[in-house]
Amino acid sequence: MSSCLDAAMRYARRGWPVFPCKPGSKEPATAHGFLDATTDLAQVERLWSRRPELNVAVATGGHGPDVLDVDVAHGRPGYQSLHTAIRAGLVPSPIVWVATPSGGMHLYYPGGGQRNGSLPAHGLDFRGGGGYVVAPPSQVDGRTYVVVSPWNPQAGRIDFGRLKEHLAPRREPVPWRESAPSGSAADREPGTARLAAWVAAREPGNRNAATFWAACRAAEAGDTEALEAIAAAAVSTGLAKDAVDKTIASAVRTAGLRRLVIDREAAS
After folding, report:
1. pTM passes above 0.85
2. Is residue 136 within 8 Å of 55, Cβ to Cβ?
């Protein structure tokens, strides 16, 4: 029995729905992704017996686990945010800790009714209903997902809504004027509502800088949807997607450092 087949069978026996991903990848190997996840042991065995090199993924939320994803890629402050949340009593002991190929961590919890969520400026993502995670012993880019703790059958549930409110409390929208290009629409518009439209209207020569500025504002506001819209708007201007992704990641990192400075000043 292959290692991923063995793992898929163990997860399915726990009641966690599983499905295959392409070898060395997070991309589903089935037509409908996590919607094809199953706990049927016979079906699981058929899937991986035919292609033992397939990665194994677990559908999250509900019968599957909820997973807190600690992200350190591109300089994101995932561990720093995790420690802050632990000190606040918002991160109970998980079922298991899993080290991810990027150097981050997955914390598995009993599943519930929560949906996916994200705190990009804080390097934390949440996988609940409608999501999935690639699970041990799968590999991505030649690196393996590894269980790094004993399994804890007494794990409590995690409330991502409370964690999000603690790390990124809701604030009334305020005008973002700091460092805004002179006379821009962003100079006059409150919050992040029109940042993507403003980026989409940029001409060659200032598109990347405009994308970075707008993404910083959205990240500081904790507005994940605005970040996605800004990225799409930047690509629509002719910028390469890879370059836009790097710019967005840099803005998220910058916003996180700025937030850290503000929090430290407030605590001093």
Report:
1. no
2. no
